[in-house]
Amino acid sequence: STNFTTDMTTGNTSNFTTQNASEHNLVNASASAVVAATVSAGQDLCAYGYTGPMCGRCQIDPPHYRASFSKECVECTKPELSFTIILIAAVVVAIIVYAVFERDSISRFYDRHEVSFLILKQNGTIIMVTVQIIVGLSNV
Questions:
Q1: Which of 10, 7, 45 is nearest to 24 (CA)?
Q2: Helix, strand, coil shares of the chain as percentages rounded to 5?
Q3: Residue 51 belongs to what H/E stretch?
Q4: Which pTM value belongs to this model?
Q5: How large a percentage of the chain has pLDDT more than 90?
Q6: What is the DSSP letter of 14?
Q7: CA distance 66 to 44
Q8: CA 89 to CA 41: how far, in whole Å?
Q9: What are the tens digits of pLDDT across the range 3-27?
């Protein structure tokens, strides 16, 4: 029996016998295995978060995205973290809105406790300078 095959590299069509078919399939299987091994081995050369030819794409598992400014692949954050950031931002906005609309009551509160705030400011400055000195000495 005669079969026809097409050489994928040259596009030439040739015939071969059934006897040669098993050898041909073995060669094709070996070539496929070499290509698969090369592709998987090449993936190990990419930095974390990168994949594909010349490591030019971001990984899908775990999910990554390409940062618009740095063009680096960055791992997606957890939805819980995004919710926490949004919650903190909402609280900060609420405090600012309250401060703008209740400026008079805040001003009266500050006037009543001005001495306490000045003492707190002075002690806070002393504590911060002390921490900076300790951190500076620990790096020596």
A1: 7
A2: 60, 15, 25
A3: strand 50-51
A4: 0.31
A5: 24
A6: E
A7: 20
A8: 45
A9: 445 444 455 555 545 444 455 444 4
